[in-house]
Amino acid sequence: MSDLPASTNDLVAPMPVLPVAVLNRLARERLEAVFPLCWVAGEVSNLSHASSGHVYFSLKDSAAQVRCVMFRNRAQLLGWRLENGQNIEARVLVTLYEARGDFQLNVEAARRAGVGHLYEQFLRLKDKLAREGLFDSSAKRLLPAFPRCIGIVTSPQAAALRDVLSTLRRRAGQVGIVIYPTPVQGDGAAAQIAAAICCAGEHRECDVLIVCRGGGSIEDLWAFNDEAVARAMRACPLPVISGIGHETDFTIADFAADQRAPTPTAAAELAAPEQVALLARLAAYRLALRRLIDQHLNQRGQHLDWLAHRLQSPSQYLARHQDNLYKLQRRLRAGLLQANAQARATLLGLTRHLLLIRPDPVRQAGHLEALAARLRSAWQTTAQARHADLELLSAGLSHLHPAAVLARGYCVVSNAQGQIIRASKALEPGQQIAVFFHRGRAEAVVLNVSEEDGIAFAAPAIASAASPE
C-alpha cells in the first residue's frame, strides 16, 4: 500500500510553463509556416499614416475585419495613396505581432480591386501580340525630321490636347495640325480610337500621327489596351507616337507605336523639332557656308596670282630656252674634249705598260735551258740518292733473311707436326724432330732434354739421319 501515489495529481506528467513571449513567437512561426503569401480583398478602414512611413489600416468586409500594416519600403513602391473606403486587393503575409499578441497581415503589395483581373488581361494580350511580332523593333518606322503637318488623335475636351497644341505652337508654329476627335475613355472608345487612326492613315494629310491622353487609373486608360487600337497603329502608313498617361503608365498602344513618349507634351516635342533650335542651326550653317565660300575664293585668288606670276610671253620663254640650249651645247663640247683627252692618256699608259710586260723570246729561251739543266742535275742527284738507299735497304733485308741466318750456322727445329721448337722444355726424350740447315734437313730423335741457357758446342746427344733437302 505504501507504493500508491499520495494523490491523483501525481498521475499527470508535469507540463512546461511557457513565457508569453515564447508563446507568441511560436504562434507567429506556426502562422507564417502554415499560411503562404496570398491575396486578400477588402475595404480599407481605420487608415493611419505614421511619421515613420509605415501605413496601418484594417481590411473589412460585411462579416469580419483584420488589422494590416504596410511597412515604409513597401508603401514607397505603391505608386498611389491609400484612402479610407477604397476596395483593394492586398498580397499579404499572415503573422502575429508578438509585442501585443495581435493577429495581423503584413502587406507586401496592393492594388485596387479589379485591377488584378485587368492586369492579367493586359499581360495576356501583350504576350499574344508580341508573339505575332507586332512589337518588333525592326518594324518600327523612323519619325520625319521636318514634318509639315502633324495629326492628333485625342478627345477635343482633353487637357492633353491643350498641352500638345501649346507645345507645338511654341516649338514649331509653322507646322500644320489636323485633329482627329475621338473619345478616349468609356464604352466603345477603343473602336473609335482605332477608327480615327485608320482615318488619318487613309487621308494621309499628315507626316506623323500623335495618339495621346492624360493620366488616369488603369480603368481610365483601358481603351488604349485594346487589340484593335494596337493593330490600327501598326497598319497605319504614318509613323505613330504614343503619349498616353504619365511616365509610369504603360499601355498596349505604347508597345505598338513607332515611338513612345512618357507624356503628351513629350510626344509633341518628339513630333516637331523646335523652331528656335532649327533657326539657330540654320544660322550656324549659313555662317559656316559663308566662311567656306570666302576661304575657297581666297584660295582660288591666291592660286590665280601664282599662275599669273608664272605666265610669260612666248618670246621670253623661247629666249630663255635658247640660252639654256647654248649652255648645254658648250657643256657638251667641253665634256667631249675632256673625255677624249682622258681616253688618249689612258691609251698611252696602257701602251707603255704593254711594252714593259711584253715577253723576250731569246731571253726566255736561255732561262728555259738553264732551268732544264738544273732539272736534269737535280733528277740525277735524287736518283743516285734513292739508289743508294735502295741498296742499303736490300743489304739489310738480305742480312735478316732466314736463309742468311741459316747460312751463318744456325738451324731450325720442328716437331712432327711442323711446329717450330723455340725452347727445350717443349721436347721430350724419344720425340721425333726435324732439323733444317742452310742446305738440307735431318730427322732426329731426342735423347736428353736440358733447360740450361746458352749454346753448348759439345757433340749433340741426338741421333740424326741427314737428308739432302
TrEMBL record:
GO terms for molecular function: exodeoxyribonuclease VII activity; nucleic acid binding. Residues 134-444 form the Exonuclease VII large subunit C-terminal domain. Keywords: Cytoplasm, Exonuclease, Hydrolase, Nuclease. Residues 19-109 form the OB-fold nucleic acid binding domain. Coiled coil: none annotated. One of its GO terms (biological process) is DNA catabolic process. One of its GO terms (cellular component) is exodeoxyribonuclease VII complex. It catalyses: Exonucleolytic cleavage in either 5'- to 3'- or 3'- to 5'-direction to yield nucleoside 5'-phosphates. Signal peptide: none annotated. Its EC number is 3.1.11.6. It holds the Pfam family tRNA_anti_2. It is found in: Cytoplasm. PANTHER family: EXODEOXYRIBONUCLEASE 7 LARGE SUBUNIT. Belongs to the XseA family. Heterooligomer composed of large and small subunits. Bidirectionally degrades single-stranded DNA into large acid-insoluble oligonucleotides, which are then degraded further into small acid-soluble oligonucleotides. This is Exodeoxyribonuclease 7 large subunit. It comes from Candidatus Accumulibacter cognatus. The lineage of its organism: Bacteria, Pseudomonadati, Pseudomonadota, Betaproteobacteria, Candidatus Accumulibacter. The gene is xseA.
